[in-house]
Amino acid sequence: MRKGDMAESRELYKQAAQAEAAAIQDLGHSKRKTLGITVVSTAALWFKANEFAKAQQIIDHWLKSDLLPDFAIEQLKSLQRAMQQYPRVSRKYPSVN
């Protein structure tokens, strides 16, 4: 993949993450499954956009809540572990497929 393609991909992931984050605001907390899916998607998209602090912020916020179903909690923890596998200094994270 060319550098230009990577930059464009990251920008598209960022735009998608922003849209998902906005959708979270519109969801009612009574729709736990939909909320869980959307939260996990948002965190993963921030990760793919190389916006690691934003991904971690989403993960931290929602893991502290009691609003997510178990599957979403497990997926957020899995994403958090994946993020911790890469060196923080270089910030050269591979894309998540």
Task: Annotate the secondary structure layout.
Blueprint: H1 3-26, H2 32-48, H3 52-64, H4 70-84
Q: Would you write up a description of this structure?
A:
- This protein has 97 residues and is mainly α.
- Helix content is 71%, strand content 0%.
- The protein has 4 helices and no strands.
- The relative contact order is 0.14.
- The C terminus is likely disordered.
Order of helices and strands: HHHH
Characterize the main sheet.
none
Beta-strand portion reads: under 5%
Structural class: mainly alpha
Alpha carbon gyration radius: 14 Å
Helical content band: over 70%
Q: Any descriptors?
A:
single chain, 97 residues, mainly alpha, 71% helix, globular, disordered C terminus
Concise synopsis of the structure shown:
The protein is mainly α and 97 residues long.
